[in-house]
Specification:
The complex is a heterodimer of chains A (654) and B (129). In chain A, helix 11 packs parallel to helix 14. In chain A, the strands form five sheets. In chain A, strands 3-2-4-5-7-6 form a six-stranded parallel beta sheet, sandwiched between helices. In chain A, strands 10-9-11-14-15 form a five-stranded parallel beta sheet, with helices on both faces. Chain A has a five-stranded parallel beta sheet with strand order 16-17-18-20-19, sandwiched between helices. The longest helix of chain A is centred in the C-terminal third of the chain and has 30 residues. By secondary structure, chain A is an alpha/beta fold. Chain A has three domains: 175 residues, Rossmann fold (3-Layer(aba) Sandwich); 178 residues, Rossmann fold (3-Layer(aba) Sandwich); 196 residues, Thiamin diphosphate (ThDP)-binding fold, Pyr/PP domains (Rossmann fold). Chain A contains 23 helices and 20 strands. Chain B has 129 residues and is mostly helical. Chain B has four helices and no strands. In chain B, helix 1 packs across helix 4 and helix 3 packs across helix 4. The N and C termini of chain B lie far apart (39 Å). Classes of the chains: A alpha/beta (654), B mainly alpha (129). The interface between A and B is large, with 67 and 51 residues.
């Protein structure tokens, strides 16, 4: 018997055929043709169709009586089973801007699934939904699913997916699609696509378009495994509208596969032994950690290894890798530490070449090596296990002395053991001397940062250093989490210079791909993750970023997500202003118009009123630094009551 | 789509001095130590500092930012200041005489030199260790 087409199956179901005949992949009976489509009546399967309310028209009066189309007592929706599978994966939330191509799954989520684990979080833009999921993962360490249309939703979402991919963060993207062209409604033609995931395939790790519910279940679990196995990355699961909406028999033997997350790949033993020898023998080793700490244990391991060797650490900040005030932390004097080192060990470094070299960005660009020519170089990274061709996030190729293709966090325990076995009394004394020197250097850098923050202390607009110092004064005694920060990929930003970061949830890194519009939604997502732990979530929120999709403020208000957003409102796209200014200089034809096109003035944007319009407590604009502390104090009180708050601070550039 | 790929020092734009900083600007060639600052007009220097974008990297009060070190209150002699501005060796782009006169430089130097000294750090509870 040939496999029935989806059109045949749908018409069969539309005629109210017995549920048992509607099994996925089961033979279909012949279907009557030309039955007009009607809305399903409320109630059970045996309830007669409801009469139209009025007014009746000639066309309606002359039409054949509608058949009853509701789920039978012995049936359940395909998307109900999908919810069973998604619940088995432990999703706490689904983020979505609603879309008809996943209406079946949406309904199953809120009714069949009880809108709990996962709970639906209403988003005002698909890019916001994905960025929220990005931020959520970084705070919770668990992926979130995002639902979107396969076409128009995915196109909105694509920038945020790219950010997540560059940041090696798993976001679980579920796309609705209507594959069967024979029964598409009008809008579904715009929302239908042959290969929905194609447009993001260059920056997702895996995708599938399952054809049956059994196929779906395996692909749903596989997608989760693939996404969360280092190197982690977004995945896409395309769900056909028919597969979601078709009833299946309740006794259909559908199985929910068991999720088994593979252990992360650790380094090869011989290579680890070699790395340990080089580390113990080095006079001035330095660790450069970027995406190392994918769990809180990663920071613990790096602290243990650094203290064992009394070696310096540079935290490049894609993750919370090392306590900011640890005496061995050399981040605030990173270039000096690299220049001094005779051994540099990159741990999940996204740009190791950029760590040991520099590009001079002038009219004629040039490069130079920052590290000593004789410095030995080691990398431990999953970057050697995964690379894609089109998008260039892999950076320049750095020749190294030892490359260990492995997950660095999974490799550190063996490396620590190997180092410990090799340490002698003589080397221990060398290490202790080195540790004292590094401690002095890091303390001097920290004190220089405190003093640097005092300059322009009373200036208006408010200096960013003053802003960060005022925020720190308000939160330092709480269990806080900086869920997003301006220019977070620069570790010399003010929070990192002034605040004491010593918990893994206190620093969540950056967007990954450099796409503006990440900060505001990622903050809301991370704050949602922090909510259950009662943490005080704080975002230092840039104005340009906020304006990409400010509707995320409504999401925070609607779902009562406690988040303190402190606007770093410099009224411009500052990064871009500097780039254009640089071109003005390089071309030597006037340097006084560089701000054109990068300013956000005339009119100034009132972020407090923007937030208030969406139900958020807000104050500002605040330009007098003396007003800032009291305003922050009031806002913190609001956040501690479980609601979002925003303080608009007119600031200088960063 | 804009980007925030902001490596240290990529975008130093305006007036850069030789402050000891984390930004690793390359030191300029040695200059005659005898050079003294010409008379500069502080008010005009402040206008120029904003107009030609010095503040973009060095912040509004010349206190320094992520992309440029502190240059005020003044930290280097005028001669080195002027020479570096014309012929920077780090990330800062050059300001030629076509776009900035010697008098303009003197005015800017006067303005950054006149920036107020900050309060003592230990008097600021927000900066307590």
């Amino acid at each position: 018997m040939s496999r029935p087409s989806r059109l045949e199956r749908r018409k069969f179901l539309k005629k109210g055929a017995l549920a048992g005949a509607a099994l996925v992949g089961a033979p279909a009976a012949a279907a009557a043709q030309g039955t007009p489509t009607t809305a399903a009546g409320a109630g059970g399967a045996a309830t007669p169709a409801a009469q139209p309310a009025a007014p009746l028209t000639h066309a309606v009066e002359s039409a054949a009586p509608a058949d009853v189309q509701v789920l039978g007592d012995n049936e359940r929706a395909g998307s109900d089973f999908m919810i069973d599978v998604f619940k088995s994966l432990g999703f706490e939330y689904f983020f979505a801007n609603p879309g008809s191509s996943f209406r079946g799954l949406h309904e199953s989520l809120i009714n069949y699934g009880g809108n709990t684990n996962p709970e639906l979080i209403t988003c005002c833009h698909e890019e916001s939904a994905v960025a929220m999921a990005h931020g959520y993962f970084k705070a919770a360490g668990k992926p979130i699913a995002v639902m979107a249309h396969g076409t128009v939703g995915l196109q909105h979402a694509s920038m945020a997916i790219y950010n997540a991919w560059c940041d090696r963060v798993p976001v679980y993207v579920i796309l609705g699609n209507h594959a069967d062209a024979a029964i598409r409604r009008g809008a579904e033609w715009y929302h239908g696509v042959q290969d929905a995931a194609a447009m993001v395939r260059d920056y997702t790790k895996w995708d599938d378009f399952p054809w049956s519910l059994t196929h779906f279940a395996e692909s749903a679990v596989r997608a989760y495994q693939v996404a969360t196995t280092p190197p982690m990355a977004p995945v896409v699961l395309v769900l056909d509208g028919g597969l979601q909406e078709h009833p299946v028999a309740k006794d259909e033997p559908l199985r929910v596969p068991r999720l088994t997350t593979p252990a992360a790949p650790a380094g090869e033993r011989g290579a680890i032994e070699e790395a340990a020898k080089l580390l113990v023998a080095a006079e001035q080793p330095v660790f450069v950690a970027d995406r190392l700490a994918r769990t809180p244990h990663g920071m613990t391991l790096l602290v243990e290894l650094a203290e064992l060797l009394q070696a310096g650490v540079i935290d490049e900040g894609s993750r919370m890798n090392f306590p900011s005030r640890h005496p061995l932390n050399q981040t605030q004097r990173a270039r000096a530490a690299v220049a001094e080192a005779d051994l540099i060990v990159g741990l999940e470094s996204a740009d190791f070449w950029g760590t040991v070299n520099a590009v001079r960005d002038q009219l004629h660009r040039s490069t130079r090596r920052l590290a000593r020519a004789s410095a030995r170089l080691i990398t431990i990274t999953t970057g050697d296990l995964y690379i894609r061709a089109n998008y260039q996030d892999f950076r320049r190729l750095q020749d190294v002395d030892l490359a260990i293709a492995a997950d660095a966090e999974a490799t550190l325990p063996a490396l620590i053991d190997a180092v410990r076995r090799l340490i002698t009394g003589d080397r221990q004394r060398v290490f202790e001397d080195r540790g004292r020197t590094l401690t002095q250097a890091s303390r001097a850098a920290a004190e220089a940062n405190r003093i640097a923050a005092t300059y322009a202390w009373d200036a208006t607009p408010i200096s960013v250093a003053r802003l960060c110092a005022e925020v720190w004064a308000q939160i330092r005694n709480d269990d806080w989490s900086l869920v997003s920060s301006y220019y977070s990929n620069d570790q010399t930003n003010w929070p990192r210079r002034l605040w004491n970061f010593d918990q893994s949830h206190q620093w969540l890194g950056h967007a990954g791909g450099g796409g503006i519009g990440y900060g505001a939604p990622a903050s809301v997502g991370a704050a949602l993750a922090n909510k259950k732990d009662g943490r005080l979530s704080v975002a230092i929120q840039t104005d340009g970023d906020m304006m990409y999709a400010p509707g995320v403020l409504w999401t925070a208000a609607h779902h009562k997500i406690p988040l303190l957003s402190v606007m770093n409102n410099n009224r411009q796209y500052h990064q871009e202003a500097m780039h254009v200014q640089k071109m003005c200089n390089a071309r030597n034809r006037g340097v006084d118009r560089g701000e054109i096109g990068s300013q956000l003035t005339e009119p100034n944007i009132d972020y407090a009123r923007l937030a208030q319009s969406m139900g958020i407590y807000a104050e500002g604009p605040i330009a007098n630094p003396a007003d800032l502390g009291p305003a922050l104090s009031r806002a913190v009180a609001v956040v501690k009551r479980g609601e979002p708050a925003l303080i608009d601070v007119v600031t200088q550039v960063r | 789509m804009k980007t925030t790929v902001a490596r240290v020092g990529i975008v130093a734009v305006a007036v850069v001095a030789l402050a000891v900083s984390v930004y690793a600007q390359t030191s300029p060639p040695a200059t005659p130590a005898t050079a003294t600052a010409p008379a500069g007009k502080v008010a005009n220097g402040g206008i120029l500092y904003k107009k030609i974008g010095c503040y973009q990297c060095h912040a509004n009060e010349a206190q320094g930012g992520l992309s440029g070190p502190r240059i005020g209150p003044m930290v280097v002699p005028y001669a080195r200041f002027a020479q570096y501005l014309r012929m920077p060796t780090g990330e800062m782009p050059p300001y030629t005489s076509k776009v900035l006169s010697d008098q303009d430089i003197a005015d800017i130097y006067a303005w950054v030199s006149a920036r107020p000294k900050p309060p003592a750090v230990d008097t600021l509870p927000q900066l307590a260790r």
